Amino acid sequence: MEILELAKTDGDYLEKLAAFKKYQSEPDKQIDLEAEFSLLKKLSDGVNLLGDYSQKIRDRVIAQGELISVKMLAGLLQKEGIAGQPG
What we know:
The chain has helices at 2-8, 13-25, 34-50, 55-79. By secondary structure, it is mainly α. The radius of gyration is 15 Å and the shape is elongated.
């Protein structure tokens, strides 16, 4: 939520978002997380423009973080030959 708070107070949220993206992409840069990070940027830009955010926005940001984690884990498992889905 630090990124949202920085965006809300006109802080350097873009730098923090870039650092977060770099950190999350580190395990495998080949896994495509652009859609998730694009939405995070749009949400953060909106918060910056409005100077505030709702619980709904906070929940969407948390959901994007969860999607990033799931996509990364599934990609890493697949790379090791482990099926991510039963069957």
